Amino acid sequence: MSQRQQLERIMEIDRRIRNGKFPTAAQLSSDLEVSRRVIFNDRNFMIHRLGAPIAYDRVRGGWYYRDESWILPGIIMTEADLLAFFLSIEVSRRYLGTSMEQLLYSAVEKLSQSISGTISVKLDTLRSIYSFTGSTLLASNEKVLLDLHQAISTSTRVWMRYYTASRDEHTQRVVHPYHLSNIRGDWYLLAFDELRQEIRNFAIGRIEEWKLLDEKFKRDPHFSPADYLSSAFNAERGVETEDIVIRFAPEAARYVRERQWHETQQIEEEAGGGLLLKIRSSGLGEVKRWVLQYGANAEVLAPAALRNDCRDEVNRLHSLYAG
Questions:
Q1: How remote is the C-alpha of 187 from its chain's centroid?
Q2: Is the pTM of this model over 0.85?
Q3: Residue 192 in contact with residue 199, Cβ under 8 Å?
């Protein structure tokens, strides 16, 4: 039986007691179509977990509150609720960055003030059971996330000073923010770039300065973040989408087949334990870097341009290490 159903029964028990109905387990089990044992379990939960001062009136033959000023907590949290909330905090700290930690703990404090009764699960106890290890992420300022959230919600133009790592270049841009996306732990902004006159993907960690402007922009109603990101590989997106085919040797294939690397991926098993991975993407540079980490256990078969780029990179590596 779901926790939602239990909450609805508890609210009904509270309503009847508060209205002076002096309910009994027999009446409640009949009206709510559950067993008397379920009703007694609900009553015990109210008494021992929520601190409800429920007592039995022998004259009226039903339950009442010894302290009529007691009220049902605005939030009732079970052990599963606390676990889910704890996991969300730990994941958020890694995806939003440690600079968001104070805001998260502030949220916990506000929530705890709304809960009465005993909380049987402590965060320190949960940390002894669960741990998280994140990848190395771009540092993101929580203020820029909050400001961009506001800009997207209000269709406000944003000025920013941005560092483009591929060109080692600092530029000033005015953008129309459309969407925030978290890709493998790093935050990115999809925005129309007035400088380039097209939608671009900006790494939040590379925004050095920013300012919300007074002017509004009109959002393109036909733009879809999902469609835009579908042709990318991780965060990189190129001009043309191409069919990519990569052969993985058995040593790498056993790991590759475990994961969903791209929403378009297709896997064809080969004799001996190897496989072919087929995807459609425009982010060839990111695909090249990803493939090369598997060394001789991965071979790009198509497109020819990506295969040539990988070959040239391997030749440069050979020249670097040959001496």
A1: 11
A2: no
A3: yes
Of 235, 152, 232, nearest to 188 (Cα)? 235
* Dihedral sign, Cα of residue 10, residue 12, residue 14, residue 16: negative
295: its two tokens: 């060394």
CB neighbours of 152 closer than 8 A, spacing ≥ 6?
Answer: 177, 178, 179, 180
Question: Right CATH number for 242-322 from 1.10.10, 3.30.110, 1.10.3470, 3.30.70?
Answer: 3.30.70
Domains of the chain by residue range: 3-65, 79-127, 142-229, 242-322
Q: How far apart are CA 313 and CA 323, in angstroms?
A: 17
Per cent of the chain over pLDDT 70 is 77
151, 85 contact by CB (below 8 A): no
Could you give the residue ranges of the DSSP H alpha helices within 19-78?
25-32, 36-48
**Tens digit of pLDDT for each residue in 39-57?**
999 999 899 888 899 999 9
Which range has the worst mean pLDDT, 103-117, 152-166, 231-245?
103-117
SS3 269: strand
